[in-house]
Structure formats: structure tokens, C-alpha cells
Amino acid sequence: MDNLSVLEIFVRISEARNFTTVGNQLGISSSAISKAIARLEEKLRVRLFHRSTRIVTLTPEGTLFLKRCRRILDEIEAAKNELSESQLLPYGKLKVSIPSIGVLFMPQFVKFSQQYPDIELEIDSTDGLVDLIEEGFDAVIRIGELTDSRLMARVLGSYKRILVASPDYLLKAGTPEKPEDLIKHSCIMYRYKSTGKLDIWPTSQYSQVLQTEWPTRMVINTLEPLISCAENGLGIACIPDLAVYTRLNTGKLITVLDDFNHDVTTCRVLWPSGKYLSPKLRVFIDFMVENLFKN
């Protein structure tokens, strides 16, 4: 077994945390996998894994070695891509991280997969921070401002977070005319899974953002139940406009406090600045820029 194969096996084990699983993936016996790792540890003179009967975990030395291995394998893969004529046609696995609001973009991801059937798209949904390089992502889609100078970015579009309620609720409770009126209303709040923090509503007055804790009727950490509660008259909710266009057009939901809402949320696709832009990544970026915010 050559050195490159051993490095690939090591990386796979660090991800699967199980020798047998990796052996099944590669068509190699678990004993052969175990011996290959043992020889690698002997050569390096360090223990790379803590072993138990059910799971293996990286040692501190193994974690450090994993970072190097991923960089080496990424560089080799990039070199192959540059030299391979077959890469003129985009294909292969593409790992992408999207925020929780990314569920609204699934129709566009489906269209991308239909247009590029040779690209295997792996989507991970989280609002938390991810390390593209260390976690093996080709690209991430994120909202907000770009803060990492190591990343390249292209703007995909923007949306507005709006306050909405059902006609029945507003008929019963009244329509707020200024942000302070929310004190008298039932508010349905969104909690971010990644941080545990409640969403701060985009209400402002006299150029000052108001961050008052409004009376909370219910707290939800996923989008669809939040929309459902507002639509069924539980109270006022803050929801991305692109998630409720149809409900607004049909009158199932009504916006409130528009004059006090100046929110604009930008969505970007990010990728490592030093990463070779493979055909599969290039067509993904171009497709998302062109299509992600199309209705």
C-alpha cells in the first residue's frame, strides 16, 4: 500500500471514526486497515488514534496530522484536475454548507443537479461557523457580512426580514403603528440553533435600532413552524420576505411596521481564496449567482 493510499485511509477513518466502515467503503478488510494505520503510526512515532471497540478518535497529534493530510490531498486533487482533460466537463463530489434558510433554495439546488447530473452535491445545513478547509467544504452559502479574509466571495442576492401577522390576529389585537406598540402584542420569536440566541427584530426609530425584548408568545427554531404560527393567528413574527411571498400576495399574511423596517440581508457564496477553482465549483458558483434568488 503506497504512502498516498495510507494518507487517504487515515483521513477517511478520521471522518468515519470506524475501521470497519472505511474497510467496507474501500473493499479492504478491517485488519488490513488497522495494520496500515499501525505502520503509519510506527513510521511517525506517534499515536494517531485512541481506539475502542466501537469508535476511534483522533489524538492531538492525529488532529494536527489530519490538517496536513487534507492539505496534501487537496493539492494532489487540484493538480489532477488541472491536468485532466476529462475535467473540462464538470463532475465529482461537491460539498456545500448552507444556512437554515437555505431550505428555501432547494428548488434551485434540484435544478442545478438536473443540469449537471455528473456532479454529486452534498449539502450540510447549519447556521454555525464552519471551517471550509479543515471540514472539507468546497463552498458555503452564508448571510451577513464577509469577515474572513481567507475567503473569496460573490453576492448571490439579498432579502428583507419583515414583520408579519394574519388578518384575523390584527383584527383582534389591532395593527401596531410604531415599534413600541409591540409591547401590547403577542410575538413569535425565532431562536438560532447555532448560538441559542433569539432573533433581534429589524425595528428602528429615529435611525436607532430598537432591541427591546418584546412579549414572547412562543419561541421556535425552524422556519416553517414560525410561518405556520403567524398564519394561524398566534401573533406577529419576523420572517424572510422570500419565504412568504405567496402568502402575502394571497392576503394570508400582512406586513406591519414597514416604515420602521430598513433591513437588507445579503447572501453570499464563499470559497477558499487559494483553492483551485475546479469546473464543478465554477459552474456551481455561476449557477447560484444567476439563479438562487429567482422566483
From TrEMBL:
The keyword Transcription regulation applies. Signal peptide: none annotated. InterPro entries: LysR-type_TF_proteobact-type, LysR_HTH_N, LysR_subst-bd, WH-like_DNA-bd_sf, WH_DNA-bd_sf. The keyword Transport does not apply. One of its GO terms (biological process) is DNA-templated transcription. GO terms for molecular function: DNA-binding transcription factor activity; sequence-specific DNA binding. Keywords: DNA-binding, Transcription, Transcription regulation. Residues 1-59 form the HTH lysR-type domain. Gene3D superfamilies: Periplasmic binding protein-like II, Winged helix-like DNA-binding domain superfamily/Winged helix DNA-binding domain. CDD domains: PBP2_CrgA_like_7. SUPFAM superfamilies: Periplasmic binding protein-like II, Winged helix' DNA-binding domain. It comes from the Bacteria. Belongs to the LysR transcriptional regulatory family. This is LysR family transcriptional regulator. It comes from Xenorhabdus beddingii.
